[in-house]
């Protein structure tokens, strides 16, 4: 394998400006518990990322793309009130709603199902600088308020650039202006931060060294508190960037001088002041019980404060540098001790996300997450060595030069095309055809198809891009993909409709079918969680290698698949509607509940229909990270694929494709039409499954080689997978999986379970043998793993027995550590505590475990091909691009995007930064 490290793609990662959890503690989680917990990340380019903590896995589920000149400066979640029956039981769970602000005069609400703006607030407001939502009512409080007819929703208070403060109502699933709480009361006085004490009392920090307490019911100013003048030689007025109410009713505020101040709950007098940072403090976060407080600011520090023994004074415990630039946002989820999930999220100009434990702070590592997209914004054409990368409204197409076979050297990558898409919407997805002659680009407004032509201009190659005209604009899409045979274009719209267009080659170019196939997904049971239709949002799409099967997966873990039927007839119309009468089968692509649809669409004699076994596919334990089909095996022989038949791959078809004898050489990769369609799926929990789409069941390989059988190194990887690619040889089918800082190979032609007793450990008594078990290093808070003894700072808590001045080691009980003779564990010590309904596909698929063969490097181990290979030498990875593949060789490019190459403004230097 030949791997090239490349940094030629200048992808501009965007700063994090806002963070918000959908709940701040377990009491705010609706039915479903932690399944409803999400983190919204707002970036400076207008994107909003939705992350699922997933008990410490931290998966980026989707991205709501922004547009030209847009930014996200604030985020918040609210939840609609639950509906109760006459006996006080919940009949309908309130749905979550997400809002944002970004230097505009309106608050924007986002549709979680489509990822598009749902509505904007009304009212003639100035530019909004800050906002906050009323605290949620507990279920018992909500039930009582419902019986008394009191308001139960969460209204929003906004602060505007002219100094005014307004109240927006979210009642009746709307967002409209209700009243002004405060009119402008001074020149250049602007509110910078807002915090609620209860549902009717707010504290607002201003840029003139003051904060005010308001009662929003009567718009009355309860108290105005002054912080005094700024330091000598500095600005006269202090900016109150952050203000928070503590559970005790006290107020904590942070200003531009780096001071953290605490005020009494009754008279609002200052009782403590701490010079916490060397620069502006931008954000404050508080634990659920009010015992811990976190601050972050321009000096890159994240500081932790704890209450003293007196219960009033605050002491600084420590500070850490989790980021390399200004830290602009903090958010906290602090669950109870039974659920163990408790963490602080932080982000700033360095674009990375940091997850810090709260309840187990000092006992567990923090978790750093790359600021690069988790779904690579890269598409490639192996045949032409073209690579396309997109960001914002721009697309760059690069040519990677071939390598010299003798020296291994080649020319530097060349950017052949730089194009800008018209409109203000950002590019959501793009797909380059296998032959490099087509590229499809989708935004929130439209999907466009371009033809790529090569122009020879002396020694340098140039590309000409021509937009293909269609009779009607293509539907806007979130996901687009051109099939491997370049005959189909699939689009997943923002409404999660699956459309398939036929691409036909004409003398004058490429022509698109007038109408698409609309593939209907199977209707599942209604989702009773507070996320509603968001969980049915399609996240992945994949064509089979022969382009005859299409598969999609959604965030709930459901998989739908369709197959292409019929023999291609180029003399037939590109679109024709055929009356099928009452012979509509259950596997039709149309909705099975639509009895009025008696016609079927065909294109050149072919049509798409739902696969019979689609209903048999189980729900995955979590969302799919990638979908990929097992490729055909390489062979040296010429084989005849047989005669046409009515059933292929165990799948019923009305017409069988033509079969022929194919001559192959050593490097020919043949996709045999009579091979089964075997789909590999890696879930967000890093569970690897392989499904036979003919039956909807796990393949024999997958049943035998469960994730527990895979190498320990793979199972311990924290960062989730971003993509995969294949390399097939005469003796191996190697699946390469990669994440933001790792690359792993699994040979899925081999078993990872010991096959013979020679591989089993021996036992003298022929029975059970005691083995020392590994210490459970997995963290409990949802951040990093437990801190190792050598990395522990300070005195480690614990009880130690001393005898004669020496510590006494405790003996392990062998009764709980016995294992079968073959040395394979029956229960994993480091298994996560998961809900019973979270593992539908893997509940009874626990397998035996073995280490396999793993090492850093190439080569063969033992008598056969290597089973696994991995490397952590590349980081951070933007994408891994396969370029060339033969029976004995594969060439790939690992595209890295180090942080020091980002275009960032100068940072605040501390006393220890001068030498850097």
From TrEMBL:
Listed under GO cellular component are:
90S preribosome; small-subunit processome; t-UTP complex
Pfam families, from UniProt?
WD40
Q: Do you know which Gene3D superfamilies this protein is assigned to?
A: YVTN repeat-like/Quinoprotein amine dehydrogenase (2.130.10.10)
Where is composition skewed (Basic and acidic residues) in this entry?
783-793
Q: Name one GO molecular function term.
A: RNA binding
What is the protein name stated in its UniProt record?
A: Uncharacterized protein
- Region entry Disordered: which residue ranges? 573-600, 756-868
Biological process according to GO: maturation of SSU-rRNA from tricistronic rRNA transcript (SSU-rRNA, 5.8S rRNA, LSU-rRNA)
């Amino acid at each position: 394998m030949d791997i090239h490290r490349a940094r030629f793609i200048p992808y501009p990662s965007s700063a994090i400006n806002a963070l918000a959890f959908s709940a701040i503690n377990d009491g705010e989680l609706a039915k479903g518990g932690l399944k409803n917990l999400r983190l919204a990340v707002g970036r400076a380019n207008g994107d909003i990322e939705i992350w699922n903590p997933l008990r410490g896995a931290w998966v980026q589920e989707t991205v709501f793309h922004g547009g030209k000149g847009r930014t996200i400066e604030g985020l918040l979640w609210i939840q609609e009130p639950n509906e109760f029956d006459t006996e006080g039981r919940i009949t309908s769970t309130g749905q979550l709603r997400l809002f944002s602000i970004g230097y505009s005069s309106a608050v924007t609400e986002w549709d979680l199902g489509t990822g598009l703006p749902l509505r904007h607030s009304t009212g003639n407001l100035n530019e909004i600088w800050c906002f906050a939502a009323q605290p949620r009512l507990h279920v018992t409080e909500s039930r009582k308020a419902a019986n008394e007819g009191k308001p139960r929703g969460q209204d929003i208070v906004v602060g505007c650039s002219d100094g005014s403060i307004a109240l927006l109502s979210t009642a009746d699933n709307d967002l409209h202006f209700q009243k002004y709480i405060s009119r402008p009361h001074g020149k250049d006085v602007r509110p910078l931060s807002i915090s609620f004490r209860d549902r009717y009392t707010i504290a607002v920090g201003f840029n003139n060294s003051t904060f005010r307490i308001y009662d929003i019911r009567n718009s009355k100013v309860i108290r105005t508190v002054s912080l005094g003048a700024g330091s000598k030689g500095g600005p006269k007025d202090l900016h109150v960037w952050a203000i928070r109410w503590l559970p005790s009713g006290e107020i904590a505020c942070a200003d531009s001088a780096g001071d953290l101040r605490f005020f009494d709950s009754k008279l609002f007098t200052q009782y403590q002041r701490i010079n916490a940072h060397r620069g502006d403090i931008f954000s404050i976060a508080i634990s659920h019980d009010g015992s811990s407080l976190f601050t972050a600011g321009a000096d890159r520090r994240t500081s932790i404060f704890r209450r003293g023994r007196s219960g009033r004074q605050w002491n600084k415990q420590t500070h850490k540098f989790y980021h390399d630039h200004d830290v602009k946002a903090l958010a906290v989820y602090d669950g109870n001790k039974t659920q163990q999930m408790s963490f602080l999220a932080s982000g700033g100009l360095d674009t990375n996300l940091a997850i810090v434990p709260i309840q187990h702070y000092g006992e567990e590592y923090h978790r750093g997450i790359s600021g690069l997209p988790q779904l690579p914004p890269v598409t490639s054409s192996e045949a032409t060595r073209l690579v396309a990368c997109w960001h914002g409204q721009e697309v760059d197409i690069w040519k990677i030069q071939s390598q010299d076979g003798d020296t291994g050297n080649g020319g530097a990558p060349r950017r052949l095309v730089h194009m800008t898409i018209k409109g203000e919407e950002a590019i959501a997805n793009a797909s380059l055809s296998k032959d490099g002659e087509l590229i499809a680009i989708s935004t929130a407004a439209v999907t466009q198809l371009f033809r790529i032509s090569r122009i020879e201009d002396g020694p340098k190659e140039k590309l000409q891009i021509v937009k293909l005209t269609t009779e009607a604009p293509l539907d806007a899409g979130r996901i687009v993909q051109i099939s491997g045979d370049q005959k189909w274009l699939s689009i997943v719209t923002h409404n999660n409709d699956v459309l398939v267009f036929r691409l036909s080659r004409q003398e004058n170019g490429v022509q698109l079918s007038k109408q698409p196939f609309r593939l209907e997904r199977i209707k599942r049971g209604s989702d009773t969680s507070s996320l509603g239709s968001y969980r049915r949002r399609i996240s992945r799409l994949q064509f089979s290698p022969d382009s005859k099967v299409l598969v999609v997966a959604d965030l709930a873990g459901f998989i739908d698949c369709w197959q292409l039927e019929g023999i291609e007839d180029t003399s037939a119309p590109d679109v024709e509607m055929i009356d099928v009468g009452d012979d509509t089968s259950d596997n039709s692509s149309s909705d099975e509940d639509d009895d009025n649809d008696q016609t079927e669409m065909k294109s050149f004699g072919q049509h798409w229909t739902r696969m019979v076994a689609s209903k048999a596919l189980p729900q995955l334990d979590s969302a799919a990270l990638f979908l990929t089909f097992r490729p055909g095996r390489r062979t040296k022989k010429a084989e005849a694929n047989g005669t046409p038949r009515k059933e292929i791959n165990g799948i019923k078809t009305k017409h069988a494709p033509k079969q022929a004898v194919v001559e192959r050489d050593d490097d020919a990769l043949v996709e045999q039409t009579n091979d089964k369609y075997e789909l590999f799926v890696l879930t967000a929990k890093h569970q690897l499954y392989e499904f036979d789409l003919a039956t909807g069941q796990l393949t024999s390989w997958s049943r035998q080689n469960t994730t527990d059988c895979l190498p320990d190194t793979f199972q311990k990887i924290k960062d989730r997978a971003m993509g995969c690619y294949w390399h097939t040889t005469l003796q191996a089918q190697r699946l390469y999986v990669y994440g933001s800082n790792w690359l792993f190979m699994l040979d899925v032609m081999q078993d990872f379970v010991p096959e013979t007793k020679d591989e089993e450990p021996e036992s003298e008594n022929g029975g059970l043998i005691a083995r020392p078990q590994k210490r459970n290093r997995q963290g409990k808070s949802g951040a990093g793993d437990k801190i190792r003894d050598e990395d522990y700072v300070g005195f480690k808590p614990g009880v130690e027995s001393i005898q004669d001045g020496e510590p006494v080691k405790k003996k392990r009980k062998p009764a709980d550590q016995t294992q079968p003779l073959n040395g394979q564990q029956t229960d994993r010590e480091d298994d996560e505590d998961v809900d019973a309904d979270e593992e539908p596909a893997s509940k009874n698929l626990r397998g035996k475990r073995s280490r396999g063969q793993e090492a850093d490097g190439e080569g063969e181990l033992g008598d056969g091909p290597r089973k696994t290979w991995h490397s952590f030498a590349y980081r951070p990875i933007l994408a891994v691009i396969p370029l060339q593949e033969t029976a004995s060789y594969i060439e790939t490019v690992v595209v890295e995007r180090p942080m020091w190459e980002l275009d960032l403004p100068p940072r605040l230097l501390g006393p220890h930064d001068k030498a850097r």
